[in-house]
Every structure is written in C-alpha cells, then in structure tokens.
Amino acid sequence: xxxxxxxxxxxxxxxxxxxxxxxxxxxxxxxxxxxxxxxxxxxxxxxxxxxxxxxxxxxxxxxxxxxxxxxxxxxxxxxxxxxxxxxxxxxxxxxxxxxxxxxxxxxxxxxxxxxxxxxxxxxxxxxxxxxxxxxxxxxxxxxxxxxxxxxxxxxxxxxxxxxxxxxxxxxxxxxxxxxxxxxxxxxxxxxxxxxxxxxxxxxxxxxxxxxxxxxxxxxxxxxxxxxxxxxxxxxxxxxxxxxxxxxxxxxxxxxxxxxxxxxxxxxxxxxxxxxxxxxxxxxxxxxxxxxxxxxxxxxxxxxxxxxxxxxxxxxxxxxx
Length: 320
Fold this sequence. Notes:
The chain is an alpha/beta fold. Helices cover about 45% and strands about 10% of the residues. The chain has a single domain (about 5-175, about 185-305), classed as Rossmann fold. It has a 5-stranded parallel sheet with strand order 1-2-3-7-6, sandwiched between helices. Strands 4-5 form a two-stranded antiparallel ribbon.
C-alpha cells in the first residue's frame, strides 16, 4: 500500500479523535446534558478511518445511528458535531437532528438515521445520482449486522447490481444487534455468499486492522469509480460500550469485552505498527494523542458555550 508517513499519522490521529470524542459525548450523556441516547463506536475506529481514507473529499457516505466516527473520519468539524449532539443552534442540523440524525453535507456525509438499514437505499439513490450526472463519485453506505435481515438491504443490493451503481455496501459487523449476537439472528455464516448472490465482488476483513480496511475499500473504490459497479465489504469489529451508554449488558461478560480491549484494540495495534514499521517513536505518538484530545476539548468548549435554538424558530430547517 502506497500510504505516506503523513497519511498514516493522520489516520492514527483521527482514530484517537473519534475515541476521545465518543468518550466525551458519553460523559455529557451521563451528566444528563444530552437529549436522547448516545450510541458510541468505541472499539470500531479502524473501520471509519480505513474506509474514509480511501475516499476523495467529493465522495459520499451514508451513516447509521452509531455514526459519529463516520462523520469525523469523513472530515466533519468536531465542534459542529458536538454542538449538534447537545442540540445547539451551531450544530450541523441547527440542533434539530441530535446524535443519531447528523448530516454533514459540506464533507459528503449525506446523513445518519436511527432506522436500521435506512441509510442503505439512500446510498443507492446517491450512487444513481452520481451515475446519471456522469460524475466519477463513489458512495459508501455503512450499516450494521442488525441490518442484515432487513428487506431494504436486499432490495438495495439488487438494484445496485442491476444498474451497476458506484456504491460500496459496508457491513460494520460489531457482533451484536442491540443484545442479539449475529449468529443468533442471521442464517448466513459466510456473508460473502450474499455478495455472490447479487453478482458483485465481496470481501471480509479484520475491522480492527485499519490498513486492512483501507486496502479492501481502496480496491472497491477503484473498481466502482472505473464503472465496475457495486461491492460488498464486511468489517469484523467489536463495540466496547453497550448498544447505548448506560445499557445493562446482560448478554456478554466484562471478561469478553476486556479480552478484546487487551488483544485487539485497533488504536493500540496501529500505534505498535507505526512504531515498528514506520519509525514513529512513542514521543510522537503521545503528541498525536495530545492533538486529538485538544481537538475534542475545543469541541466541548464550543458546544457548551453555543446558544440553543430560539423557541420561535422551531419550525425552521424542518422539511418533513
């Protein structure tokens, strides 16, 4: 993979920014300052960063209820994102969307949705738009393993294949749909069978390895951009928090979570790789972590100091 030292440093910094951002958002929730829930992607940072590093700024993504990391990896401003989570007027959706319904059009993030699998047909529509306009833009549609049993996913796969659309279906398999393990709800043990059924290339990668995610996405992006049609990628990852902050995680043990943290943490693994393969010393890694923490601290300060929307404007910016 032809990735510059500056690119891999930026990838590491972005992964750290996502984790610190999610931790900060969770703390706000625990203090009762967030209206609604927070669905954190702590442990899944390599997927968002690996995917979005393979995209151009003018490419598009669609996201999920667990989408903060997707937005940040695509280039969204953490200040405006944090403000949206707090329902502030300076947020991406002027405080109307909240944590699960962020759209950052300025960086190509077409929106998140709390409805499982809802972003998938949105991605197909965006890809159809790009093809009709003659643009070489590519769309990545993120979805979780909970979407695998939804008809909208299968309809979207079919249409994308029929029309040879430049869309990448990105399964972010964090093993649980709320509290149900994927092997208890999805009959397909090999999800690549689904890709083959619709006549498109498929891949399954370690979602805790940011470079493996990047490599698979880069290949799929190049194919889609050259007119080769859609692809399906499964990233096998793991979320450390519950389905939402504060959820009683009765469906798994603390020991299971701690074992993944110890042995498969994506940030720790990538940091070790940067030291051994790219010659980045521990002092520089610490500096990158400090930069990420500073970005999040500034986002928190901006969001907390921002005004709430005026009550008389409650109908503005709402279109449905």
